[in-house]
Amino acid sequence: GENVEQHPSTLSVQEGDSAVIKCTYSDSASNYFPWYKQELGKRPQLIIDIRSNVGEKKDQRIAVTLNKTAKHFSLHITETQPEDSAVYFCAAPSSTGSARQLTFGSGTQLTVLP
Amino acid sequence: DAGVIQSPRHEVTEMGQEVTLRCKPISGHDYLFWYRQTMMRGLELLIYFNNNVPIDDSGMPEDRFSAKMPNASFSTLKIQPSEPRDSAVYFCASSLGSRTEAFFGQGTRLTVV
After folding, report:
1. Sheet arrangement for strand B65-71
2. Any bridge partners for residue B112, and if so which?
3. Does A43 contact B105 at a Cβ distance shorter than 8 Å?
């Protein structure tokens, strides 16, 4: 199955600075990498995803990069704002056997300090 | 569409009681997932269904846990008997295809005392 490791577990940045969260995965066949944001007491929600046929994807202040050779992908948030404070999860699918579910990383608690 | 709907939002029960969590996926989605979230273990996949058929239940912690999907618009997760260590937030999610966005419900916060 898939093993997804996420770092760091906590991250504090000043408002306006950038934040970077990194994940590694083990299944070389994985081809879909979503990032979810979970605000306190709420459900995880997709903020951006990338497929293995591209190396980078950007959506306003959020970008994700993928390095398939090294089997890692990263979330970049620029010009951080207090409302970016949340827990962020990366995920990768397992394609072994019949298992095609997402495996989530352990999460990163991002705090943006005003 | 109202999104994935879970009920109840909160459940407090006594140890030993049966607990049933309910989920209505987004109409047309063919995958349904049950996750458990705790501080210690993060988001764990318990079981998932494809076209109402259970595909992988290897994440179900014990025989006390069971899940069903009698039709495309309804699923249940049952714990019998419940134990304090089952206290967690249980999320249901659905997706169209296995490698696309999974939409999460609001979750059920279960407390077993």
Report:
1. B5-7, B19-24, B74-79, B65-71
2. B13
3. yes
Tell me if B42 and A106 make a contact (CB, 8 A cut-off): yes
Q: Mind giving me the DSSP string for B7-70?
A: E-SEEEE-TT--EEEEEEPPTT--EEEEEEEETTTEEEEEEEEETTEEEE-TT--STTEEEEEE
A99–chain B Cβ distance below 8 A for any pair: yes
Q: Are B15 and B113 in contact (CB under 8 A)?
A: yes
Instruction: Give yes or no for A86 touching B (CB within 8 A).
Output: no
pLDDT at A97 over 70: no
Residues of B in contact with A89 (CB under 8 A): 42-43
Interface check B102 vs A, CB under 8 A: yes
Amino acid (1-letter code) at residue A70: A
Size of interface A-B (CB pairs under 8 A): 47
Is residue A100 within 8 angstroms of chain B, CB to CB?
yes
Asked if A102 has any chain B CB less than 8 Å from its own CB, the reply is yes
DSSP string, A11-31: EEEETTS-EEEEEEES-TT--
pLDDT category at B73 given cuts 50, 70, 90 is: very high
Residue B17: Cβ within 10 Å count: 13
Quote the radius of gyration of chain A (alpha carbons, Å). Answer: 14
Q: Please write the tens of the pLDDT for every residue from B9-59.
A: 999 999 999 999 999 999 999 999 999 999 888 899 999 999 999 988 988
